[in-house]
Specification:
By secondary structure, this protein is α/β, with parallel strands linked by helices. It is built from seven helices and nine strands; from the N terminus they run E-H-E-H-E-H-E-H-E-H-E-E-E-H-H-E. It has a single domain, classed as 3-Layer(aba) Sandwich (Rossmann fold). Strands 3-2-1-4-5-6-9 form a seven-stranded parallel beta sheet, sandwiched between helices. A two-stranded antiparallel sheet has the order 7-8.
């Protein structure tokens, strides 16, 4: 497949897990990819493995100036920007009684505010590329099935991912006339480090901060027991999520915008009246 040849994509949180799988899927289809992540060695390794000419941006994506710097890397390196995939994020789960406001805001910053800032900075370039090429520019926001109210002990993460769906639908309406398609994917139980039990080594270094990732003990059992509710009776893989995201970046999805594709093995989640 070479259906994204000549396209330039930004993928955030692309050094590991779902983000790395998405970057690989896009590069495998011919796109040049800016891999944006905070983990230096993993980011450089990811870029080295991609089959197309790609670039890295390494730093704290929640820094106010970071999203514009990521966009600048794409423009300065490749001269254009056609695709943005907002994947970077993490959860810091605990029951609301034990959750501090700082932790609540921290998750909103990476999972919702950072995508907003990146798309704000990318907007003129995505629109300009659609005009110049006559081909739709694409945005894929990586939300979560947690957005539907199914997450246990994740009031911060659920709020952020639900907000990301709202952002997706709002920008789909704003940017539709500019031939920019804005969609989201909502992964369910995917086998990545974020969905495995937290250990003492499960720490993400961001500047002078250490952010724990993975499922806290009080919620890990809840997620393990829910595997039996998935019609396909298994968790998904990062590659399976990436293939869905890649579809939303190709011409096959040119008449899709404002949509959320659930990648959850058929599971039904959330609360109904």
């Amino acid at each position: 497949m070479n259906d994204l040849a000549g396209r330039v994509a930004i993928v955030t949180g692309a050094a590991n897990g779902i983000g790395l799988a998405i970057a690989s899927a896009l590069s495998g289809r011919g796109a040049n990819v800016v891999v944006a992540d905070v983990e230096c060695s993993a980011t450089e390794a990811a870029v080295a493995e991609l089959p197309t000419r790609s670039a890295s941006w390494i730093g704290d994506l929640t820094a106010r100036e970071a999203p514009d710097a990521v966009v600048a890397t794409a423009i300065e390196t490749f001269g254009a920007l056609h695709i943005v995939v907002n994947n970077a994020g993490y959860s810091r789960n605990s029951m609301i009684e034990e959750m501090s406001e700082d932790i609540f805001r921290d998750v909103l910053e990476i999972d919702l505010v950072t995508p907003w800032r990146l798309l704000k900075g990318a907007a003129p370039h995505l629109k300009d590329a659609a005009v110049k090429t006559g081909v739709a520019s694409k945005v894929v926001n990586v939300s979560s099935m947690a957005a539907y109210g199914s997450a246990h002990g994740q009031s911060n993460y659920t709020s952020a991912k639900a907000g990301l769906i709202g952002l997706t639908k709002s920008l789909a309406r704003e940017w539709g006339p500019n031939n920019v398609c804005v969609n989201a994917i909502a992964p369910g139980m995917i086998d990545t480090r974020l969905m495995r039990p937290r250990t003492e080594e499960s720490l993400l270094r961001i500047g002078d901060r250490s952010v724990p990732y993975g499922l806290a003990p009080e919620v890990a059992a809840q997620y393990s027991s829910s595997l039996s509710t998935i019609p396909l009776r298994r968790s998904g893989s990062a590659k399976e999520v990436a293939e869905t995201a890649a579809f939303l970046c190709t011409s096959g999805s040119d008449y899709l915008t404002g949509q959320v594709l659930n990648v959850g093995g058929g599971i039904t989640v959330g609360m109904s009246s």
